[in-house]
Design brief:
Strand order of the largest sheet: 11-10-9-8-7-12
CATH topology of the largest domain: Beta-lactamase
Structural class: alpha/beta
InterPro entries: Beta-lactam/transpept-like, Glutaminase, STAS_dom_sf
Protein name: glutaminase
Distance between the termini: 35 Å
Enzyme class: hydrolase
EC number: 3.5.1.2
Largest sheet: 6 strands, mixed
Catalytic activity: L-glutamine + H2O = L-glutamate + NH4(+)
CATH architecture of the largest domain: 3-Layer(aba) Sandwich
Number of strands: 12
Helix content: 25-40%
Number of domains: 2
Order of helices and strands: EHHHHEHHHEHHHEEEHEEHEHEHEHE
CATH superfamily of the largest domain: DD-peptidase/beta-lactamase superfamily
CATH class of the largest domain: Alpha Beta
Radius of gyration: 28 Å
Number of helices: 15
Length: 428
């Protein structure tokens, strides 16, 4: 889980070789070391429809079709550290990264490595053809040695579950809180896992299971549902595509019974925003002379509450809700603008878990427009999740919103110390 909780059953401490599951994480390392632009020059992102050990290249550029087939994985390995690095240097970097993801020190099984290297003729042939095509610049034999070595790293199913959880947690380790893979790299990796991770069975997988995944011929499978859960299974029996037969059945059942298909609509965007109206009575003159009004004077406040993980749809819904409350009535919206006479606008982000970058831009623009119109704007943001920094303050030519920690502080700013609620929602 993204909070570090692990649920397991069966032989969860049995070690086995990671094999092709390593391809997803080495692809992320290649992006980190060489940059995404360079990686895309060398490796495509299209599903090949061929077996994992087939030489599938783009006809125009000779690039491997994707990093999840062997030709693409060898190329990705060659981009780790630098093109001039040795197999040992690349393996050391890969082992260090995978160990951080797993949360413990992993190791290479030398017996597996020697056995697989002795039968790596096909991969060696792929590597020399990649060298001839100008795709890799390092020694082809060194690239294969390093690739076979990365596939010989031993893991348990619990290790893989934690590694998958790092991917679904935007590259942040759920237990240590350390950012191990950059968020943009995670997006790229998960995208390719979705379309190519299960080889020529990728279409069936996306349709029936519906979350990014990667398999290995030792019998392991990892799955990662962004923002929710990392999944790992281990069962050595393989199907014709080289994927774990029982692992697929388990993942299909989990997806079906626990609603893990990424195309399932779990929350409608309009549930993210709630608009309410509060009426506040000003304090008695003896309590706050600077803000006091007639004791019977009431002030209207429009409150916008947001909750959950706010993305584009949620922030766009907020922008429309604000427009509805403060724009003039029209033929399409005859009831709009009923609360345009409010003395203040309050945005409560107390129950917001996160904003993505697009949501922050939209919300800052909404705040800027209200402030520019001369309205009093207060933001309840106890965790400083919106990050109203100096750049945003400087962008607002008129003023910046008052940021407070709770409703009481907001009421005091609006009506003065001792301001009381007359008719209000929730804690208002």
């Amino acid at each position: 889980m993204v909070d570090g909780a692990v649920y397991s059953a069966g032989d969860d401490q049995v070690e086995f070789s990671i094999q092709s599951i390593s391809k997803a994480f080495v692809y992320a390392l290649a992006i980190e070391d060489a940059g995404l632009e360079k990686v895309l020059e060398k490796i495509g992102v299209e599903p090949s429809g061929d077996a994992f050990n087939h030489l599938s290249l783009h006809t125009d550029s000779n690039r491997p079709m994707n990093p999840m087939i062997n030709a693409g994985a060898i190329t990705a390995h060659s981009l780790v550290v630098s093109p001039t690095a040795t197999a040992d240097e690349r393996t050391e970097r890969i082992l260090s990264k995978l160990s951080k993801l797993a949360g413990r020190q992993l190791r290479v099984d030398e017996e597996i490595y020697e056995s697989e290297l002795a039968t790596a003729d096909r991969n060696m042939g792929l590597s020399y053809m990649l060298k001839a095509a100008g795709i890799i610049s390092c020694d082809p034999a060194e690239a294969v040695k390093g690739y076979v070595r990365q596939c010989s790293i031993l893991v348990t199913v619990r290790d893989l579950a934690m590694m998958a959880a790092c991917l679904c947690n935007a590259g942040v380790h759920p237990v240590t809180g350390e950012t191990i893979i950059h968020q943009n790299s995670v997006r790229q990796v998960l995208s390719v896992m979705t379309t190519c991770g299960m080889y020529d069975a990728a279409g069936d997988w996306v349709s029936n299971v519906g979350f990014p995944a990667k398999s290995g011929v030792a019998g392991g499978i990892i799955g990662s549902l962004p923002g929710q859960v990392g999944i790992a299974t281990f069962s050595p029996n393989l199907d014709e595509q080289g994927n774990s037969t029982r692992g697929i059945v388990i993942c299909e059942r989990l997806s079906r019974e626990m609603g893990l298909h990424m195309m399932d609509v779990s929350q409608i965007a309009r549930a993210t925003v709630r608009t309410s109206i509060a009426r506040l009575r000003a304090p008695h003159p003896k309590d706050d002379p600077d803000h006091a009004h007639h004791p019977d004077c009431e002030q209207k406040v429009v409150i916008f509450n947001m909750r959950g993980a706010v993305r584009f749809a949620g922030s766009e819904r907020l922008a429309r809700a604000v427009e509805y409350e403060f724009n003039a009535p029209s033929d399409e919206e005859p009831n709009a603008g009923q609360h345009a006479d409010a003395c203040a606008v309050v945005f409560s982000f107390r129950d917001v878990m996160s904003f993505n970058d697009v949501a922050k831009v939209i919300i800052h623009e909404v705040l800027h427009r209200l402030l520019s119109a001369g309205l009093t704007v207060i933001v309840i943001d106890p965790s400083a999740i919106l990050h109203w920094g100096e750049d945003e303050r400087n962008d607002c030519k008129v003023n910046h919103p008052e940021v407070v920690k709770n409703e009481e502080e907001a009421r005091d700013l609006i009506g003065g110390r001792g301001c009381s609620s007359v008719a209000s929602p929730d804690s208002w």
